[in-house]
């Protein structure tokens, strides 16, 4: 306490106490926040996320430096490639998972959706140059290197656009961050939007900070091949997928992932170049002649100058040469000290810092596994997996899922069968168009131990097949279907596992059915259409059977070929022999059991509150009934306006005829047009026999 504080405290103890407390508060601080000689007396300021990215040393300058490093620095390129390989790999793939209300997979619908989506993935790029997987890879590279990337969702006028045919009228366009107009900025140009929006570095935001539009150049602003007028176009944010890592609240645009290590990466490149140059200079010196006498010649060049342009003597050595030294002369070798033995630890230290700043591990970036043990390798992989998993989840939710949603919208607009309508998508998109994304496989460090752990977790119900197989980049549905198919073929060929061999032997002793007996029973009863498989397969098999019978009857097909083809569609050998015998003698004395024995019916289904109650269920019913030979028509109480006709045409499966009964009783109306359905399906049965006014 100084003299002034004592005087104040003497006359006003209360004021003296406040001064003492204030002085004590001034002494309390964080040492890390002090500005001193070691920090060049710099005092950082708290600024907004967008403000830190502005200026000549902001995000745009960092992006240019990052691209230069990736072009010229092997370590920088490997950082990008390592992140892309672990996050995206060969591409994140989709699998439709539509189910019935009871939780059963609707296999036909899922197969068709997956097939159409795979076909679209092959030509997903607007120019047809990139597949969907390649778009993912390039987008992830741009996120790491440039900090951000834009993908525009383009609804094409037709399925065929610019000479490229797609199953749905929809494509993607990759847009580099450089094409976002920096001139469109409220702070830089003081532009005022009439709607109250503000523009931050080319991104237009509403009063809550939500992007509503992007100002984008038609081509790269610095390209020497630009031919169009470089006026930025305002593109609605609903058409844009903006991918970037958000590190701070309120951040509008992304920054390169090299930002924390940019100076280290540059310095490392300079240091390595200097070491290479030092080694090159050191290698220019061989030996030195030490002499007390006037300098003589060790071995001057023959027929050439004995001095260089600077007047230095030119002398050289040759292998196995004998040198005669003059009195007082000696030859001493020069030790250049290169390569520098201390450089490797220093380079490794800088690389470890760079890897820490970019979220990668040293072994993967340096490709140095010389000091890696099993435990350290496992620890490194386990440490990296959550980080890469976070990046995969970001790609799924912010890129893949929006693309799938827009793909389903395009399929609805195109009226594709087995896809939900626009109305269904608006009501409950996740219910009518569910999807599961298969991530890249995570390699096991110790396959045997991890396999045993996975089996134990499944048996103890502490984990699911979806999680275990999903971690390996597999779909449990696809694995189960394929495993069942392979088991059936394996048992058919008599290839039994030790457990199955034991079961077969025990079954033979007890008279029960073993694994092989089950296959024989299935073969005896037939497969394909006879086993109640997919109705699509049934319809194809039905047509194939007719073709085979016609060929055998008219003699255009031999008996051997007919037998082979009947076996291919799944008919048992017993039924094949019966068919061949009937065709040979012309008498059907061995009728083959088939789906043909089922009565073909004319089924009338109502639209509102019947078909619309569960469109996917009724679509499957219609497909099944049609495949079985029945005919399905739609009888609705609507008047049949142009809008009604369009709506029902888009909603119903192709080939379903529509009858507009209006206010008349539906049965009487159908009789008046000469059609009498056998089966009626209607949520209001009274409308079948009564007029609307009487209901």
Structure description:
The chain starts with a helix and ends in a 6-residue tail after the last helix. The strands form 6 sheets. Strands 6-7-8-9 form a 4-stranded antiparallel beta sheet, with no helix packed on it. A 4-stranded parallel beta sheet has the order 16-15-14-17. Among the domains are: 1-27, no CATH class; 52-62 and 89-256, no CATH class; 498-525, no CATH class; 530-597, no CATH class; 602-694, 3-Layer(aba) Sandwich (Rossmann fold), CATH 3.40.50. 47% of the residues lie in helices and 10% in strands. It is extended. It is built from 26 helices and 17 strands. Mean pLDDT is 81; it is low at 525-539 and 592-598. The longest helix is centred in the middle third of the chain and has 41 residues, at 374-414. Helix 5 packs across helix 7 (132-145), helix 9 packs antiparallel against helix 10 (343-358) and helix 19 (535-554) packs antiparallel against helix 20 (559-568). It is an alpha+beta fold and 695 residues long.
């Amino acid at each position: 306490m100084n003299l002034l504080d004592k005087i104040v405290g003497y006359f006003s103890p209360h004021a003296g106490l406040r001064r003492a407390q204030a002085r004590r508060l001034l002494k309390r601080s964080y040492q890390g926040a002090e500005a001193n000689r070691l920090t060049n007396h710099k005092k950082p300021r708290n600024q907004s996320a967008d403000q830190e990215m502005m200026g000549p040393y902001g995000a745009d300058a960092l992006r240019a430096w990052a691209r230069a490093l990736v072009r010229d620095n092997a370590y920088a390129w490997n950082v990008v490639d390592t992140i892309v390989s672990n996050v995206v790999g060969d591409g994140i793939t989709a699998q439709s998972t539509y189910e019935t209300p009871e939780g059963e997979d609707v296999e036909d619908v899922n197969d068709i959706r997956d097939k159409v989506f795979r076909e679209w993935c092959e030509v997903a790029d607007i120019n047809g140059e990139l597949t969907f997987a390649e778009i993912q890879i390039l987008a992830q590279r741009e996120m790491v290197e440039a900090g951000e990337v834009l993908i525009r969702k383009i609804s094409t006028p037709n399925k065929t656009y610019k000479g490229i045919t797609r199953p749905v009228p929809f494509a993607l366009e990759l847009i580099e961050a450089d094409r976002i107009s920096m001139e469109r900025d409220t702070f830089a140009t003081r532009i005022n939007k009439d709607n109250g929006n503000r523009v931050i570095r080319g991104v237009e935001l509403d009063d809550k900070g939500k992007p509503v539009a992007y100002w984008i150049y038609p081509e790269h602003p610095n390209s020497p091949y630009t031919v169009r007028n470089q006026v930025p176009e305002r593109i609605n944010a609903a058409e844009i997928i903006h991918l970037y890592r958000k590190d701070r609240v309120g951040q509008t645009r992304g920054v390169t992932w090299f930002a924390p290590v940019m100076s280290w990466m540059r310095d490392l490149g300079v240091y390595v170049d200097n070491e290479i140059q030092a080694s090159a200079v050191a290698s220019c010196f061989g030996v030195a002649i030490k002499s007390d006498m006037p300098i003589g010649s060790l071995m001057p060049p023959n027929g050439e100058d004995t001095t260089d342009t600077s007047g230095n003597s030119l002398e050289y050595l040759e292998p196995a040469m004998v040198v005669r030294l003059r009195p007082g002369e000696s030859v001493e070798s020069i030790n250049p000290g290169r390569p520098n033995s201390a450089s490797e630890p220093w380079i490794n230290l800088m690389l470890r810092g760079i890897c820490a700043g970019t979220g990668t591990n040293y072994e993967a970036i340096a490709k140095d596994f010389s000091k890696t043990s099993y435990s350290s390798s496992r620890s490194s992989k386990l440490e990296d997996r959550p980080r890469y998993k976070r990046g995969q989840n970001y790609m799924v939710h912010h890129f893949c899922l929006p693309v799938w949603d827009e793909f389903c919208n395009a399929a609805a607009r195109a009226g594709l069968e087995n896809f939900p309508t626009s109305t269904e998508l608006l009501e409950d998109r996740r219910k009518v168009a569910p999807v599961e994304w298969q991530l890249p496989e995570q390699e096991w460090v110790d396959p045997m131990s991890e396999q045993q752990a996975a089996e134990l977790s499944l048996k103890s119900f502490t984990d699911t097949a979806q999680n275990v197989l999903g971690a390996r980049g597999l779909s449990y549905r696809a694995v189960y279907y394929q495993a069942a198919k392979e088991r059936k073929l394996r048992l058919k060929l008599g290839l039994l596992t030790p457990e199955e061999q034991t079961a077969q032997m025990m079954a033979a002793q007890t008279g029960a059915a073993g694994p092989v007996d089950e296959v024989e029973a299935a073969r005896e009863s037939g497969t394909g259409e006879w086993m109640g498989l997919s109705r699509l397969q049934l319809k194809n098999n039905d047509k194939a059977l007719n073709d085979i019978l016609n060929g055998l009857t008219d003699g255009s097909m031999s008996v051997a070929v007919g037998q082979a083809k009947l076996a291919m569609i799944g008919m048992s050998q017993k039924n094949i022999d019966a068919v061949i015998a009937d065709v040979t003698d012309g008498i059907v004395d061995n009728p083959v059991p088939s789906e043909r024995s089922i009565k073909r019916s004319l089924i009338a289904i109502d639209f509102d509150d019947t078909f619309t109650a569960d469109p996917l269920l009724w679509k499957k019913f219609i497909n099944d009934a049609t495949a079985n030979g029945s005919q399905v028509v739609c009888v609705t109480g609507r008047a049949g306006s142009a809008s009604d006709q369009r709506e029902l045409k888009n909603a119903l499966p192709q080939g379903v005829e529509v009858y507009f009964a209006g206010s008349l009783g539906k049965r009487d109306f159908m009789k008046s047009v000469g059609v009498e359905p056998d089966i009626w399906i209607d949520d209001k049965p009274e409308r079948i026999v009564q007029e609307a006014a009487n209901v």
